[in-house]
Write a structure and sequence with these properties.
This protein is 28% helix and 23% strand. A hairpin with a 4-residue loop joins strand 5 and strand 6. The chain has a six-stranded parallel sheet. The chain has one domain: 3-Layer(aba) Sandwich (Rossmann fold), CATH 3.40.50.10420. The chain is of the alpha/beta class.
């Protein structure tokens, strides 16, 4: 049996064993009024609320490609990947600013990409989280491997609360919430960022 046959057989068994996961279990009933964080929801503008909470977890909200280009150049992040669907709105403008942008993510050269630009499917004002739907992300590794991840929110869809975001899950089998850059802490409680993923998490609202 070849390696490819073994791989196919393993994944076939995994799919059979997890077949029950294809149908979602209904969400439990809960009182939304006691699950929200009132201090985090202060204000009327969802974008302003999101920005405040996103900054609190060391995220960087941005509202223009010029601002993104200035940050990438000042931090020396001059080569990266951009979702082909975003090349006109973002990638070409970065290229005009002297930044090298590729539209194909080569897994064998993952260390070459200093930033990755992919689509965000939403954001959560209450927690300052970026929502990434795996089915709509052009390349998952491009969102996880580079030091800088730029999630682009084209639709301006910002959920006010976490429960609103849960209700809008839809049928996607894999949805990721990014609440600031990746982080971990040891037993002494020392927080370290950029360990298991990007060290800079940016949300660019177009």
């Amino acid at each position: 049996m070849t390696d490819e046959d073994s791989r196919s057989q393993i994944f076939s068994r995994i799919k059979q064993a997890t077949g029950a996961l294809k149908s979602k279990v209904a969400l439990p009933d809960y009182d939304e009024s006691i699950t929200h964080s009132a201090p985090r929801l202060e204000g009327a503008d969802p974008w302003e609320i999101f920005c405040r909470n996103f900054k609190a977890v060391h995220g960087r909200p941005m509202s223009s490609v010029a601002e993104l280009a200035a940050f990438l150049k000042s931090s020396g992040q001059l080569h990266g990947y951009c979702d082909p669907a975003l090349i006109d709105a973002v990638g070409s403008k970065l290229a005009a600013a002297g930044i090298t942008v590729e539209t194909t993510f080569d897994r064998t050269r993952y260390d070459d990409y200093q930033f990755g630009i992919t689509r965000a499917t939403g954001a959560i004002a209450e927690s300052g989280s970026v929502i990434i739907d795996d089915e709509l992300t052009s390349h998952r590794l491009a969102a996880l491997s580079p030091w800088v991840h730029v999630a682009v929110l084209e639709s301006g869809e910002i959920h006010r609360t976490i429960s609103d975001a849960i209700a809008a899950f839809g049928d996607s089998p894999n949805i990721i919430w990014c609440t600031g850059p990746s982080k971990t802490a040891d037993v002494e409680g020392i927080l370290i960022e950029g360990v298991h993923g990007p060290g800079e998490q940016i949300l660019l609202r177009l």
